[in-house]
Hints:
This protein is an alpha/beta fold and 819 residues long. Helix content is 42%, strand content 17%. Helix 10 (326-339) packs across helix 14, helix 19 runs parallel beside helix 21 and helix 27 crosses helix 29. The protein is elongated. The protein starts with 8 loop residues before the first strand and ends with a helix. It holds the Pfam family PTS_EIIA_2. It catalyses: L-histidyl-[protein] + phosphoenolpyruvate = N(pros)-phospho-L-histidyl-[protein] + pyruvate. GO terms for molecular function: kinase activity; metal ion binding; phosphoenolpyruvate-protein phosphotransferase activity.
Amino acid sequence: MIQLTSQNIQLHAHAKNKEDAIRQAGRVLVDAGNIAPGYVESMLGREQQANTYLGNGIAIPHGMGKDRELIHRTGVCVVQFPEGVEWNPGQMVRIVVGIAAKSDEHLGILAALTDVLDDTATADRLARTNDPAEIIAGLNRQKEGSEPAEEEIAGTKFVDARLGTSAGLHARPATAFVDLAGEYTSEIRVRYRDREANGKAMASLLKLGAEGGTVLRIIASGVDADAALAALKEAVEGGLGDEEEKPSRTESRAWVPESSGRAIAGVAASPGLAIGKLHHFQADHIVVKDTPGNPDAEWQKLRNAIESARTQLQDVYDSMKSRVGKNEAAIFRAHQAFLSDTELFGEATALIEGGHSAAWSWQQAIENRVKEVQSVSDQRVAGRAADLHDVGQRVLRLLAETQHSEPSLPDEPSILVADDLTPSDTAKLDPQRILGIVTVAGGPTSHTAIIARSLDIPAIVGVGAAVLELTAGITCILDGASGILYTEPSAAELESARQFQIDIQRQREEEHFERYQPALMTDGHRIEVVANIGKASEAAAAVEAGAEGIGLLRTEFLFLERDTPPTEDKQFEAYCEMTRALNGLPLIIRTLDIGGDKVVPYLPQPHEDNPFLGVRGIRLCLRKPELFRPQLRAIYRASVTGPVKIMFPMIATLEDLRAAKEIAEQVRTELGVPPVEIGIMVEVPSAAAMAAEFARECDFFSIGTNDLTQYVLAMDRMHAALAKQVDGLHPAVLRMIDQTVRGAQSAGKWVGVCGGIAGEPRGAVILAGLGVTELSMSIPSVAAVKAYLRGISHTQAQTFAKRALACQGADAVRELPLP
């Protein structure tokens, strides 16, 4: 490898534009005797053919292959532009690495550059440094056994630590390292053998491939370097929390493949594991025509399409990184790198100059490159062909016509892929034919997710448009618990997944067998687990599933899909059917909650720009006593047949609660029946903020986390673009719940939760730890949640809840290891 020296480095340079910056780099190479002056023009010519911007403020201008005779000897130079040079619109370069290569001696520095691309802090440091030695250290890889670079830079310190986990530095311990390193301001690097990584970047750490029991060198520079090194050394030698998990304490158990393979991450919507062939609910057909225009115009079309694809991939990467982490999103960085392949672009450009269209030329170039990669003997390298094909299709869609075929359902059991599914589409799906669902859009509280859970169909939502590019008919494994779709798994992985399905079925059978046992935690603390239902017939099913009562009866089923409101007697009969089925178990009846997204034909409502912020729930009932009073009469009449409680929805002010209670008391007095407990739904921030005041005027709270989440985050949970971000485990929502519980406890009142997070083990543990005493969920979740809570202590739940409250986002909460 060639050596970079201070002769080849120019600091604190200024440039008017990109051309000026390239010429300055060329002059450094000319002065060093590496090139003839004519090679500078070749460097400018290359820039016209291909973008040499790498990312993180770094560009690598170099000449064209045909001009190599102008190179006297291979060399590289670095010109630093601290103020930046606009390379392309939106791309600011501060480090220019000029390259003149007769062969491949410069590849070592290019390899080091790819590491710098993963490390924003290092790139920023090199762009500001006053010391050429620092640039040399950053861009020259150390050979194994050579002196470490940290000893060449003043102010750095290091410690050696033996990795105390037999499984090596894989995702879980790497996450722990990154989290701990992030608590310190110092720059943290980790060296393993001849590789070095950014200690605050997951993807960079995983590239080390550090095996269990081996020694890592941890390097730190900054004001708190000593403290950081001490803490990290202790954590590394302690195994970074990578303890072997007990099989009985898994969360909606996620299947873990032997190798990561090719995976697409989305949002877990409905648990379960599906194995089957992929079927597109609506497939794209790309039509490529060789109808060339002016070569310059076709060339510009291709450049525009590549840049648009690059922007799309950046959006996908950012979205995936924020949701599942940098490592899982790294594939889209690789896709962006494919778009920077100058040879691929040059091949397509040559075809355009030969008289072909941009779309046809790109397709030919991509197909040729895919075949070349597929022929490589190294299977891991050959596997990149699928990624290259994906990138090619993305650009092709921007260049060619796209036609849509009619939606069709598969003839054989399949995993269905769709841009999105309407509630009616999802409800019509046959679980015998649809093994799993994957959608581009949507969130965990969308209609698709809710219906998929009720049908017990594994589902992932919000995966992004990349999934539409997968080839129909390929075999996949869909893990609804982890929110990951694994494409084209190996035979061993398929066998592992099938065994996992058997294990899950066995676990469900055990949970079902023990479903009537209470959710008594290991230290004696009990959580009441009840069910949400929407019609009378479900009461008996809830009891059969192990529910200890009904925490939420949605009475809308009595009012919807009819031309006139139900009579008092009709409602009374329905409530009595439930009290009989419950045989003494409690029944919480929520009064009519329509408005917003629920409307009835016999109750015309004026148009509202923001129906979820308008006349809905108790607001509507107070304005329509002809609906409210008969319902209250039916509830009070049914209360003498079993333990019934009344719950008012959408309570935002004390005035609304007092008005509703006054009408209820009038009805009760008229009937001459005993009082019942009256509670409120806490689903708007004002109710949570004033929980102490509300608790003095009602008997209990039931927190509706689905609505509370959308109001706290100001995101409509049905919004196509935002739904996947509407997560009830967001710390802002959890802190509202915590405030509500503390307010209720101050008045000696109990709190339940009837929103979606109550029905998942992670949410149930957090809620129990916050002091919630009743969890109400969909019927299929009852046995599993009870089983999970029976396996942990309340103290563990409290500790876990405190950690969740301290997180900064929903992703961080979901990444916390469960007790």
